[in-house]
Design a protein that fits this description.
It is a single chain. The chain is built from 13 helices and 20 strands. It is α+β, with helices and mostly antiparallel strands and about 400 residues long. An 8-stranded mixed β-sheet has the order 6-5-14-15-16-13-17-20. The chain has a 6-stranded mixed β-sheet with strand order 8-2-1-12-19-18, covered by helices on one side. A 3-stranded antiparallel β-sheet has the order 3-7-4. The structure holds flavin-adenine dinucleotide (FAD) and 3,4-dihydroxybenzoic acid. The site of flavin-adenine dinucleotide (FAD) has 32 residues, from helix 1 and helix 9.
Length: about 400
């Protein structure tokens, strides 16, 4: 088989890239290890920056998002007794969109299928070959038989555990990592959200986040030990812990119900440099991970896709490689800023096991500064709604 751009990974990065390139007449094949149902079963991000919303429009897949997504013009940060309302609209004239990663991925799958996009599921043993030559190709196994896909370029959109990043020689690759000493326990429940904005809460018992998917579907998270397991958190224990971490006025009106999903995610900051090797480009979680505080994971994947799709379109329209040659540097500049914001917000709102009295005072001073300083709130808002592409 031959295509112009071989895309490894059928998560949001791979699908969005495939759809954007298709709209510009560029042929792609998407190779996904799992089934579509498996990919759609993963409950992940819920907040879309304005830039990703625009890309969904450009990709021609925004209809359901515009109808069902909820625009949020601000958020609440609570720390002990302090409550800070950050008004994104007032500071940036922008909002974020509440629309689940599952729904966005479903819309992209439907669009690719409607346009007879070439999506191959259940691929094993994917190997990237000759990415540093002018004749790159990908080999993979499906139902026991080996296949070869020749292409001009390869997009590694296969997430943190994929093969793409590992295909860049160790002598070329530099990896930066920080592991946080806690995780997030997430619960999805068919209950109305506790508040009409997201609440990021920090208390003596640790961090909690109140989020949502729609008017009847809520997503909540609490900070937990890394060694913890969802079985240790029956629903009533979870709801009780959540109530004790959020402001009383919200805890009092929280509607609880059975969880329909419960899982623990570890928190990690990770960046791989460069994001390009020869004709292989990394996008999204394949190249970088942020801790979820600040909702930057999916959104940063989307900005990579933006830069890469623009570069590839320029190449196929004019033969000019300036934009694809600049891809890694351009994407990394924005990636590091999202890393900074996510690290900062994680450091501000979690209880760390080794936190001493000085560290605690620093958090309190930082929160007081954010509460009292409109410029600090503007900086928060600018980062949260998403830095420009
Ligand atoms: P992925 O979504 O990981 O997609 C990669 C795809 O590649 C997968 O479908 C995988 O099956 C496939 N693949 C892997 N290896 C191969 C291979 N060898 N061959 C072929 N295919 C392969 N972000 C937020 O902003 N907010 C959140 O609340 C949030 N929660 C998260 C919870 C968890 C448990 C995780 C893991 C991530 C979370 N994120 C969150 C991050 C966000 O979901 C990711 O940033 C986003 O999914 C990145 O998209 P991606 O397409 O780059 O990678
Ligand atoms: C959600 C997850 C986040 O990490 C975040 O910062 C905001 C919302 C969510 O799953 O809804």
């Amino acid at each position: 088989m031959r295509t112009q751009v071989a895309i490894i990974g059928g998560g949001p990065s791979g699908l969005l890239l495939s759809q954007l390139l298709h709209r510009q007449g560029i042929d792609t094949v998407v190779l996904e290890r799992k089934t579509k149902e498996y990919v759609l079963g993963r409950i992940r991000a819920g907040v879309l920056e304005a830039g990703l919303v625009d890309q969904m429009r450009t990709a021609g897949v925004s209809e359901r998002m515009e109808a069902e997504g909820i625009l949020h013009r601000g958020t609440v940060i609570s720390y002990g007794d302090a409550q800070i309302n950050i008004d994104f609209q007032a500071h940036t004239s922008k909002s974020v969109m509440i629309y689940g990663q599952t729904e966005l991925t479903r819309d992209l799958y439907e669009a690719r299928e409607a346009m007879s996009g070439n999506l191959v599921f259940g691929v094993n043993k994917v190997e990237i070959k000759d990415a540093d030559t002018n004749a790159p190709h990908v080999t993979y196994e499906i139902n026991g038989s080996m296949h070869r896909l020749d292409c001009d370029y390869i997009a590694g959109c296969d997430g943190f555990h994929g093969v793409s990043r590992q295909s860049i020689p160790k002598t070329v690759r530099h990896e930066y990592e920080k592991i946080y000493p806690f995780g997030w326990l997430g619960v999805l429940s068919e209950t109305p959200p506790v508040h009409d904005e997201l609440i990021y809460a920090s208390s003596d018992l640790g961090f909690a986040l109140c989020s949502m998917r729609n008017a009847q579907l809520s997503r909540y998270y609490i900070q937990c030990d890394l060694s913890d397991s969802p079985e240790n958190w029956p629903d009533d224990v979870f709801w009780d812990a959540l109530k004790r971490r959020i402001p009383e006025e919200h805890a009092d009106v929280l509607i609880t119900g059975p969880s329909i999903e419960k899982s623990i995610a570890p928190l990690r900051s990770f960046v791989c440099e460069p994001m390009q090797w020869g004709r292989l480009f990394l996008c999204g979680d394949a190249a970088h991970i942020v801790p979820p505080t600040g909702a930057k994971g999916l959104n940063t994947a989307a900005s990579d896709v933006h830069y890469l799709s623009q570069g590839l379109v320029q190449f196929y329209q004019s033969g000019e490689t300036a934009a694809i040659d600049a891809y890694s540097a351009k994407a990394l500049e924005r990636v590091w800023k999202a890393e900074r914001f996510s690290w900062w917000m994680t450091s501000l709102l979690h209880r760390f096991p080794d936190q001493n009295a000085f560290d605690f005072r620093m958090q309190q001073a930082e929160v007081a500064f954010l509460r009292d300083n409109p410029n600090a709130q503007a900086v928060f808002a600018e980062n949260y709604v998403g830095l420009p592409y």
